[in-house]
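hey can u run this one w/ NAP bound, need the structure tokens asap thx
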Amino acid sequence: MSPFADASILLTGADGGLGQRFVEAFLHRGAREVHACGMRIEGVEALRTRHGPRVHPYVLDITDASGVQALVSSLSRLTMVVNCAGVELKRPLTDPAAPRNAQLEMAVNFLGTVHTCHAALPHLRQVGTGQIVNILSIAALATIVPLGAYGASKAAAHQATVALRAELAGTAITVHGVYPGWIATGMGQDVAVAKADPQAVITDICDQIESGETWIFPDPMSRGLAEQHPSWRNPAVLTGLDT
Ligand SMILES: NC(=O)c1ccc[n+]([C@@H]2O[C@H](COP(=O)([O-])OP(=O)(O)OC[C@H]3O[C@@H](n4cnc5c(N)ncnc54)[C@H](OP(=O)(O)O)[C@@H]3O)[C@@H](O)[C@H]2O)c1
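ok here u go:
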């Protein structure tokens, strides 16, 4: 059975370029409901207006750990969490504002992801099955200049993704890391490089979640790099540490 069928999905960054398309794809694939979270009420309410009552709009800043906890614990059911919210400031580490920029990228891309995963886990454990999907970036695995701090924040979220997958091994909760290259959304609009079609990327990600794939390279750029670096899919994971 498709993990989207009758699913209750928490989606962050729901009013962003990829997020809006995720909402449509999840509903199309049979989700019962999508808890669509964004920073701006107009953005998430527009999703409900467009798609109807299966969309529940919320304003949520994922850097606010207690706000995330309060919202997620108020939900009656959750079977999937999709961490799509993200920021990319495109500034070099030599920039005078680098420390401030790095704090924001780390707060959103890494800590925000940890907050939602942590808050959602009791729901998934209660259902006994489910999916955690973290939208990372190829910059988590390859160094892209001048995206050093962004890459570090996505690499941190990647480490958390791999570790959480190992911690949940033996349960029916799967943890999926998604490593896109450039996509033609607002985030990539200032960069003069070839970009993947967002709709094709969304279709690929959803197809791969349905097939149970946990390492998702959803576009030509990321697939090409992953083929050149097969070791990426086999990270050293050391378990059994007595804590
Ligand atoms: N586009 C690309 O080329 C690309 C490539 C690789 C990975 N990605 C990743 O894909 C994901 C989606 O990106 P996108 O292309 O859809 O970009 P986008 O259109 O800029 O969407 C990002 C979303 O995250 C939200 N957000 C930012 N800070 C937040 C916070 N503190 N709390 C909650 N939401 C927050 C934004 O809200 P506001 O707009 O209101 O700020 C926006 O809705 C991101 O994680 C991004 O890093 C994108």
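The helical segments are 17-28, 41-51, 65-74, 98-127, 148-167, 198-211, 220-228. anyway lmk if its weird
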